[in-house]
């Protein structure tokens, strides 16, 4: 929950600022196709939601993939954020990918990459990874020990509450009435139970 909240807040903070466009002289351009594209990258997606997806994928997996849709060698008409778990980098011989492959349920699509320029219809944004040439390092991976501890502590606390706040293995005696007084158990029974526990 903490990791999700952190990723959500960072992605939203990065996704919602307004994009500004300027010409070579520094004058702001208010009407331009690129601004329209960034405001609505696809028919089903608004700009803020699109960029929130891009940034969230980048933080959680270390990789984010933006697909360009449109005529070849022309400006895109749509942009789509592809899920990183469905994307695969096909290694090339010259330090750039030779292609990107999307796969789901036995279906796949391949986008070729120019081996010289590295350009194609997929923009791969990735975090630095010291041990991988093709994929970025997820921020979750180095933090997994802390995440596991937090999850284990939460599971332990819930189990403790479910057990009436009694720790596992606690020696609990039902209350009995002896000589008009409510006691947990006669002293000899408690001593016998303690001897049996310590002898094991």
Q: In short, what is this structure?
A:
The chain has helices spanning 2-15, 33-39, 47-61, 144-162, 187-198; strands spanning 21-22, 28-29, 63-69, 78-82, 87-90, 99-104, 107-112, 122-126, 176-178, 181-183. With 200 residues, the protein is α+β, with helices and mostly antiparallel strands.
Give structural notes.
The chain has 200 residues and is of the alpha+beta class. The chain is 34% helix and 22% strand. Helix 1 (2-15) crosses helix 3. The relative contact order is 0.09. The mean pLDDT is 88.
What is Rg?
A: 29 Å
Low-pLDDT segments, ≥5 res: none
Strand order of the largest sheet: 4-3-8
Written as H for each helix and E for each strand, in order along the chain, the element string is: HEEHHEEEEEEHEEH
Helix content: 25-40%
Q: Give the overall form.
A: elongated
How far from one another are the termini?
41 Å
- The tally of helices reads 5
Summed over residues and divided by their number, the pLDDT gives a mean of 88
The biggest sheet amounts to: 3 strands, antiparallel
**Strand-residue fraction?**
15-25%
Number of strands: 10
SS-based structural class?
A: alpha+beta
Q: Which terms would index this structure?
A:
22% strand; three-stranded antiparallel sheet; single chain; elongated; 10 strands; alpha+beta
Write the layout of secondary structure elements.
Blueprint lengths: L1 H14 L5 E2 L5 E2 L3 H7 L7 H15 L1 E7 L8 E5 L4 E4 L8 E6 L2 E6 L9 E5 L17 H19 L13 E3 L2 E3 L3 H12 L2
Antiparallel strand pairs: 1-2, 3-4, 3-8, 5-6, 6-7, 9-10
Helix pairs in contact: 1-3
């Amino acid at each position: 929950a903490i990791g999700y909240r952190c990723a959500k807040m960072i992605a939203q903070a990065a996704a919602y600022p307004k994009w500004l466009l300027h010409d070579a002289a520094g004058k702001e351009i208010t009407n331009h196709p690129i601004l329209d594209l960034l405001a609505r990258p696809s028919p089903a997606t608004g700009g803020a939601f699109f960029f929130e997806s891009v940034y969230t994928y980048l933080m959680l997996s270390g990789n984010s993939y933006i697909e360009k849709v449109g005529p070849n060698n022309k400006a895109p008409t749509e942009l789509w954020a592809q899920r990183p778990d469905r994307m695969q980098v096909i290694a090339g011989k010259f330090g750039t990918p030779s292609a990107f492959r999307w796969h789901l349920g036995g279906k796949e699509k391949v986008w070729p990459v120019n081996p010289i320029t590295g350009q194609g219809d997929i923009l791969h944004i990735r975090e630095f990874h010291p041990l991988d040439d093709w994929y970025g390092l997820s921020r979750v991976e180095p933090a997994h020990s802390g995440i596991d501890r937090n999850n284990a502590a939460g599971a332990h606390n819930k189990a403790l509450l479910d057990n009436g706040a009694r720790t596992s293995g606690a020696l609990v005696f039902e209350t009995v009435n002896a000589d008009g007084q409510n006691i947990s158990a006669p002293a000899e029974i408690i001593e016998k139970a303690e001897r049996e526990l310590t002898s094991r």
